[in-house]
Amino acid sequence: MDDALSKTVTPRPSSARTLPNSPCRSISRGSPAVCRFGADVPASFALVGDSHAGHWRAAFEHLALAKGWGGVSITRTSCPLQQALRDLPEPRRTQCGRWKNDVFAWFAAHPEIGTVFVAGLSGGSGVVPRREQSRYSAGVDGYLDAWRALGARRVVALRDTPRFRGDTDTCIERALRRRQEAGTRCAVPRAFGLSRDPIVGAAARAGAPVLDLTPFFCDSRCYPVVGGALVVRDANHMTGVFSSTLGPYVLRAFDRLTGS
Question: What residue spans carry the Polar residues bias annotation (predicted)?
């Protein structure tokens, strides 16, 4: 890696949390809130899930423009599109369930959306399992049930991004002050960064394609700075800057999966 890049970080961690996501034009402010991005043509695909779907939008802007596609983004914090009961306090649990029902109704009214890219947080408490069922299995079943509810659409799963330690921003700022390589100095072991992802398990059972960009984050370790770009704005959400750098690789991976 270029030595200057290894000791430079854009954006700085101190400002990353306040930077806006990739632009998206609101077309529905009700439930679900829907916004448009990509080419100025009728929408044909959707990016759906919790905030771990939303942080991919800058990358999918590149895909959409390269393909000449219009896209919609439908996301809700802490509420991935799966049918398992979310382990959330009330009233957020009920609100999440209502939002998912609204999303399914929206898709039923918009048959022109032929491809749905889905993503969600893989770690955390996740879902409430049934008796003698693991949280992971409940998550897999929840995704499968949700995808069936989407009808005859192509579903493409996004493997979740790695998590980092809660003090990663402090670690990076300290490394920069000391002229150290922040990416390697503040990296985490791969086993810490990557959780077993129920969306990948669901895709395997459904025969759905998976976009897995893990090699751009991790080798034996996962790095919070790559090529001078700050990867995460907190412990587990990508920055728009890093997401945008992944656009060409999302396009290439999608073309490889679909034989385009």
Answer: 7-25
**Could you tell me which residues come within 8 angstroms of residue 110 by beta carbon, excluding any fewer than 6 positions away?**
43
Cβ proximity of 106 and 74 under 8 Å: yes
d(CA 188, CA 203): 27
Tokens of 249: 């690789």
d(CA 107, CA 10): 37
- Domains annotated for the chain, with CATH where assigned, are 3-255 (3.40.50)
Phi-psi region of 28 (alpha: psi -120 to 50; beta: other; left: phi over 0): beta
Q: How far apart are CA 21 and CA 240, in angstroms?
A: 6
Reported as a single tens digit per residue, the pLDDT across 211-230 is 999 999 999 999 999 999 99
Q: DSSP class of residue 167?
A: T
Tell me the pTM. Answer: 0.94
Which among 39, 184, 200, 31 has a CA at the least distance from the CA of 105? Answer: 31
Distance of alpha carbon 255 from alpha carbon 260, whole angstroms: 5
Q: Are 118 and 48 in contact (CB under 8 A)?
A: yes
Judged on CB neighbours under 10 Å (0-12, 13-18, 19+), 122 is buried
- In the chain, which residues have pLDDT < 70? 1-6, 124-125
The tokens describing 53, both together, are 């779907």
**pLDDT digit string, tens, across residues 66-102:** 999 999 999 999 999 999 989 999 999 999 999 999 9
The pLDDT, as a whole number, for residue 64 is 98
3-class SS of residue 253: helix
